[in-house]
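U., I forgot to send this yesterday:
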Amino acid sequence: MYQQMIFVNLPVNDVATTRKFFTELGYTINPQFSTDDCACVVISDTIIAMMLSKQHYANFTKKRIADAATTSEVLLCLSAESREKVDELVDRAISAGGSATGETQDQGFMYGRAFDDPNGHTWEVMWMDPAAIRS
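Result:
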């Protein structure tokens, strides 16, 4: 069965800082699709984040590029396999130079936290009890 992929393209202030940040979170950089103007961050087999310098990003749009530090352009949400893994990833993001954002969401069957990366993009990390999904 064909696995559809998503390539999220995000403008960043500093590609090298962004590359270091996501590497510290445990993700890999695909060198085949990375340059000084772009870091290809492999989040999973089907999720790729293309972190493009603002100059490079501008080649793909005629629209004004949002400043993620002051404007919400997108909320990205990653699943985690447990509550502990949510905390582990968000805590690692904060240690790597990100910042905590929003309140911890704990609804019993669903748990989530969020961080902003060094470019201001908001990443939510959430866990949902598989039994709650089936009911």
